[in-house]
Amino acid sequence: MLDAAENRHRHSHKFIWISMLSSLGILGFFKYFNFFSSNIVSLFNNLGINIDPLAIDIILPVGISFYTFQTMSYTIDIYRYQIKPEKSLLKFSTFVAFFPQLVAGPIVRASVFIPQLRSDRFPSTEDIITGLQWVIWGFFLKVVVADSLALVVDVRFENPLNHNALSLLTGVIFYAFQIYGDFAGYSLIAIGIARILGFHFPENFHKPYFASSITEFWRRWHISLSTWLRDYVYISLGGNRQGHFNMYRNLMITMLLGGLWHGASWNFIIWGALHGFYLLLDKFFCKIKDGRSGRIKTSVFVYPVRLIKILFTFTLVCIAWVFFRAADLSDALLILNKMVYFDDYQFSGVTQKFHVIKGFMIISFLLLIEAFSSTTIILSLKQRYPYLHLLFSAFVMILIAFWGTFDNSAFIYFQF
Amino acid sequence: MKLIKKIIFVVMVFFALDYLISDNLHKISSASNIRYSRLFYQSIHADVIFIGNSRAVNTFYTPYIEKQFSFQAINLAYNGLSAPLMELFINEYLQRNEAPDTIVLEVTALKNDYDVLKNFKQYTFDSKALMLLLNKHNPEIYYASRLAKTFAYNSEYFLRTLYYLNRSDQDWINRYQIEPDFYEKIQPSDKKLDLLEFVDKQSMDSLRRIINVCRQNNIRLKLVLAPILDKMRNKEDIDAYVKDIENRSHMDVTDLSAVVNEISYFADTIHSNEKGAENLADYLLKSGFFDNKESFK
């Protein structure tokens, strides 16, 4: 009996490796071959060994990073006996290629999606109305927030040399909200469409710029990826079970892989490394704080301190976004370098002033909605007046017509 | 049934809000002092009109010009304004106001481009010519602005309309200087300016019709090429461009591209700033630019 179980485990161990290698092999070939090839060639050239560069002219399949991770989670969950294998090819294919979230996520776990596929789905009125509201808010995030801010961001990152520090600062702040609007908008549209069809997916973003630490930021940003990396990389590496040094190492490896997941570029690797470093510091200072005792928290300072922490976290995130968005490393360093010259902060030198003002109006509106949407007053109003959220949706549709930017720009995360 | 009721409720609220908001936005648009609101809803008296694209916006600084020349002037230029739209605005001006003495038209990038048209969709409720042009060249934008009227006010231009609600827009000009580091890094190969593309037939037709309208109304028309940053100036290209327009329009083109030279006079490679525009106005005064009554060949 024991031998059979051991034998089965040994087989499954072998198959998990085959599955992982084939999934990662396909992803690596399409996404990372040219990057590693060119870096290896330049490394050898720097060592004085001349090698001809080998590059393959291939088109990256749309959404490959998302469905690769989704299928990997399926295999790992089966290996860990967390779910049972799906016997219906149709249901498995639907899980992998479900159209709303195929291209840019969210990465929905097999344990969440497959059980829903196994039962009949009949969307309720509540499902359809909620789904439509999410789709409308998702469109708002995309065409109003992301695409309007992109008009300012693109000009600054295209030619950072020709902008003063204040102009570049607006570009960086706007990019933080552009990428949030773009990605959270797509996620919400996907989750909303799934809801209209009767499927319930977990949220992918939860007011990330209200995070008061980097650890909290990663609990709110791209939740489906961050939890994936936590469960399948960080914990597989040992998590925080093998001492502090190993925990820091595991964190760094996880975040580096998270950066690399976004694309084959040093910019993404540095972005991942920076976040790894931030997390590392966060854990380190948390440990020191936990060690202190007898600190008295007065309620007067709770909100200002939290606000300072939120702003500090946002600043750190923005610094990392510079590397994520800049065309190359030299541009990223140039932008950061220019932004530290405080005498270069002149409003007269800010280009596209009207787009900048509109951008700040949009960001303020977004933050106000996010800040107050979960307050007890709003929640009780929602309960007392059930038509209030429908009025809000109509108002958001007006804002889309009045503030939206309709220039056929694709979603940023389509490239990943 | 409950679902349909809720959807109908949202749609009705949407259209009610759209009507209320767009009506108020139209009032704001009519009251604004921005150039085309003045053109469509108010009467203007100008001895000289300046028109062209962003280069004209930042080259002809009318508050300074009026002070130096003691005539009344209006700048009707706008970023990306193409020849057919210049023609439309000149015609609209002449329909509503007395003919000016002079029109100065900046000739860079006389392209047959209708992209900028979407900025002016707020005026399509009051200008048939603009409505027809938008319907012809951007039908999806035209129909969207009919479906949701607030969409007609969705533009950078409308933000400017708001900004100039209680102030003149004639002091709209770049007030910053090109970044010295950027200037240093400009390479000779950058000299090929897209702005000096040879004009297409349709824009040339528009220009010819502008010339005819000016002739009929006894308006002196002056074609000019605005200043270009020295490092971006390719004399051969500029001469060929000027010559091409002169040959096709049978008009003289005053080449001002090399008149302003210092880096501090430019906001970027092709746009002057306030200082540069004032310097150019001083040059025009000294050279007697407005004294020459001849304009047609």
How is this structure best summarized?
Chain A has 416 residues and is mainly alpha-helical. Helix content of chain A is 71%, strand content 0%. Helices cover 47% and strands 7% of the residues of chain B.
Describe this structure in words.
The complex is a heterodimer of chains A (416) and B (297). With 416 residues, chain A is mainly α. Chain A has two domains: 2-118, no CATH class; 125-291 and 298-415, no CATH class. Chain A has 16 helices and no strands. Chain A has helices at 2-46, 64-79, 89-97, 99-102, 110-118, 125-158, 165-196, 214-220, 223-234, 244-262, 266-291, 299-325, 329-339, 353-372, 376-384, 388-403. By secondary structure, chain B is α/β, with parallel strands linked by helices. The model of chain B has no long low-confidence stretch (mean pLDDT 89). Chain B has a five-stranded parallel beta sheet, with helices on both faces. Chain B is globular, with a radius of gyration of 21 Å. Chain B has one domain (2-286): Rossmann fold (3-Layer(aba) Sandwich), CATH 3.40.50. The longest helix of chain B is centred in the first third of the chain and has 30 residues, at 2-31. Chain B has helices at residues 2-31, 35-41, 54-57, 62-69, 83-96, 128-137, 139-147, 156-163, 180-184, 201-216, 235-249, 274-286, and strands at residues 48-51, 73-75, 102-106, 220-225, 253-255. In chain B, 47% of the residues lie in helices and 7% in strands. Classes of the chains: A mainly alpha (416), B alpha/beta (297). Chain A binds chain B through residues 125, 128-129, 132, 159, 161-164, 346, 348-349, 351, 354-355, 357-358, 387, 390-391, 393-395, 397-398, 401-404, and chain B through 2-3, 6-7, 9-11, 13-14, 17-18, 21, 144, 148, 150-151, 153-154, 156, 159-160, 163, 175-179, 181-182, 185, 268.
